[in-house]
Amino acid sequence: MKKQIMAAGIAGLLALGMAGCGGQGAGGGDSTDEATTDSTSTTGSDKSDITIGVAMPTQTSTRWIADGNAVKEGLEALGYSVDLQYAGDDIPTQTQQVDQMITKGDDLLILASIDGTALGSQLDAAAAAGIPVISYDRLIRDSEHVDFYVSFDNYKVGVAQATSLLFGLGLTDKEGNKAADAPSGPLNIELFAGSADDNNAGFFFNGAMDTLKPFIDDGTLVVKSGQTEFAQVATLRWEQAAAQARMENLLSANYGGNGEGLAGVLSPFDGISRGVITALQSVGMGDTIADGLPIVTGQDAEIASVTFIDKGIQFSTIFKDTRLLADQAVVAAGAMLAGEEPEANDTTTYDNGVKVVPSYLLPVVTVNKDDIQAELIDSGYYTADEVASGQAD
Ligand code: BGC
After folding, report:
1. Which of 36, 99, 277, 283 is the most buried (most CB within 10 A)?
2. What pLDDT score was predicted for residue 45?
3. In terms of C-beta density within 10 A (0-12 exposed, 13-18 middle, 19 or more buried), how is residue 385 classed?
C-alpha cells in the first residue's frame, strides 16, 4: 500500500518534470521551511513506517562518518526510520547493501556511490519498485533513474584547491589575484587526483588544472615528472597508502630522492595529503612548512588534517560542511516522499551520461591556519580540543 502511494507520488513528479520548475524542497529560505513543513504534514503521523536507505562508501574517512550521522539524525528528527550502511569501499558490498534496501522495501534511497557506474541494475530495480533515488555528493552515472543530486560545487572545489596552491607558493593572494611580489619561478609542483570511478574526481581535477594552466603554460610552474594527465595522477579509492607510494616514487625519480626543488603538491583530499606529507617528511624535507615542507592542499577538513594545518604541516583544506549537505538530502527526501519536486539550483551541469540530473549544489570554503577558529570552531564543526588533539568525538 505504502509503495503504491509512493509510486503514485513519483509518477506525479515525473509527469510534472523534475527539473528546475522552482518547486519546493532542498533549498534555502522560505521554500525550505515550506517544504519541510509540507513534507512533515503530508506524510502523516506514522512516519516511522517509512524507511530511508542510506548507503555511504566508507568509514575510513571521517567525512563520510559525519555525513552518515548527519543524514540519519536529520531524517530521524523528521520521524523517518533510517537504514544506514557503510560498504568499506568495496563495490560488491555496496551493491549488495542497496539490493537489500530494495528487497526490504525501503521507501527512498540516498546513495553515495563508491563506483559511480556500478549501481545501474540497482537503480533499475529501484525504479521498477517505485523507489526514488537521491545521489549523495557523488553523481551516479549511466542511469536514467537518478531523481536528484545533492552535492557541493565540485568544479569550484578544484579551483579553490589550485588557488590555494598558488597562494601558498606566493604566486597569488588568497583570492587568486596575481601577487605583486610573486617569485618568477620556475617552481616545481606535482599533481594528485582522486579515484577515476568517482565522478567528482574529474570535476576537481578540471577545476584545478584550468586554474593552474596559465602558470604552467608560461613556465612559472613545472610539473617535473611530466605527469599532468588525469589518468596518470588519479588515486584509486582515494587511498592514502597509494598516494604515499606514488609520492615516494616521484621523489626518487625526479627530486634526487630527498625532494630537492619540490615546492608544492596539489592534493584533492586530506587522506591523500597526509600520505603525500608522510612521504615528504620521510625523505627529510622538514617537519613543517616553516622547516621546508612543500605546500600541500587538501579537501574535507578531516580532523587529522585540520590539526596538521594548525601545526603548519599541511597548508590548506577545502571545508565542505557535511551538516549542510545532509540537510539538503533530508529536505529533498522529505519533499519527494510528499510527492513534491525538490528545489534544484543547478539544472545544467551534472549530465550523468543519460540525463542531466537536477542538482542542489552547496558552496565551499578554503581553510588555512588562520581560518580554523572562524570556520571550524566557531561554527561548531569541531571543538578547540579536537583540533588540538587531532581526534573528533
Ligand atoms: C568527495 C570528497 C572526498 C572524496 C574521498 C569525493 O567524492 O566529494 O569530499 O574527499 O570523495 O572520499
Report:
1. 277
2. 59
3. exposed
